[in-house]
Amino acid sequence: MQFMPLNFLMMWLMGLLSLSILSGGIYILYEWYEGELVGRHYLIAGLVMVLWSFAGRFISLPLLRRPGVDEPKRIRSGTVQWIPRPDGSVLQVEFYGPEDGQPIILSHGWGPNSTVWYYAKRQLCDRFRVIVWDLPGLGKSSKPKNKDYSLEKYARDLEAVVAIAGDKPVILLGHSMGGMIILTFCRLFPEQLGHQVAGLILVDTTYTNPVKTSILSGLLRTLQKPLLEPLLYLTILLSPIFWLMTWLSYLNGSLHISVEISGFKGTETRGQLDFSSLLSAFASPGVLARGTLAMFNYEETRTLSTINVPVLVVCGASDIATTPPASIRMKAQLPQAELMTIKPGGHMALMEQNQRFSEAVGTFCTTCT
């Protein structure tokens, strides 16, 4: 799941619910042990609440979805390079596929790490040189020591990845915040477009503050200053507690419900849902909060008309994190763009409809190079 403003509110609610149920179960058991609550039903209720807090996913997940044939796994490559950055972070970059293949650099969204590209790596590496990297603070790339999580910082990191991609012009593919990083890259390094960069693929992303292009955007914009930003700063301050809440949500299965609502449209497998939820739980809440605050300052509307390379815009027809009108506007303002809508599909259509997604990526890369 991508850590976007709407997802953030849902994770807070699920986390508070999870912590309340565990605390309530422990309290009931303690009061029963002390004799303040009399009756076996209190013991059973307390035990059920505590057990559900740590193992509820084993009950809820089979009810939500059936297992698939090829479930995603956290697979990493043996071909790795590390790039030290001026801010103290170190980028981990992984390579898949033939060295002489057309290079495609995949930038993941805010929340998971590069293992989210499980299907794309498997389905594209027979023809292309697939390059993935972990955004600093996520996965195996270390945090910036100056706590800079701005889109400009990540765009400069992407420029460093492009520099080690080889002699052939690259295709840049970004999902969600990864797409925002690419558009910021286009503003900061316009001279690379058409030379080091042959084309762009923007997946379920936006050109402006994602609050403005999310479902319930009017409400979220109203809440940004009085509620969302204070909650994000509170998340940074109480990061260990929020992390505990997130893991409880994962273990009891409530995080899966949040991920289901915000990312998928009902055709995903049990493994895809669990994998996306697990990646959400791994990420540091403090890091995610800082990056989300940086997204509130994101604005690349004027950049769109300056991009002089072919662009494929991909969106899930039912994406609620970055709604389809954002993709439609990007397609209209980009000089050389085509739009592909995946239906059924939400914010995680790249996983839910992975075969269709990879086929579209492969066709575009072959055409524009």
From TrEMBL:
SUPFAM superfamilies, per database record: alpha/beta-Hydrolases
Pfam families: Abhydrolase_1 (PF00561), Abhydrolase_4 (PF08386)
Sequence intervals crossing the membrane: 12-30, 42-64
UniProt keyword list: Hydrolase, Membrane, Transmembrane, Transmembrane helix
Domain called Peptidase S33 tripeptidyl aminopeptidase-like C-terminal: residue spans: 308-367
Classification via InterPro entries: AB_hydrolase_1, AB_hydrolase_fold, AB_hydrolase_sf, Pept_S33_TAP-like_C
GO molecular function terms attached to this record: hydrolase activity
AB hydrolase-1 domain sequence ranges: 103-207
GO cellular component entries: membrane
UniProt xrefs under PANTHER family: HYDROLASE, PUTATIVE (AFU_ORTHOLOGUE AFUA_2G14860)-RELATED (PTHR43798:SF33), MONOACYLGLYCEROL LIPASE (PTHR43798)
Name of the protein this chain belongs to: Alpha/beta hydrolase
Organism: Symplocastrum torsivum CPER-KK1
Lineage, broadest ranks: Bacteria, Bacillati, Cyanobacteriota, Cyanophyceae, Oscillatoriophycideae
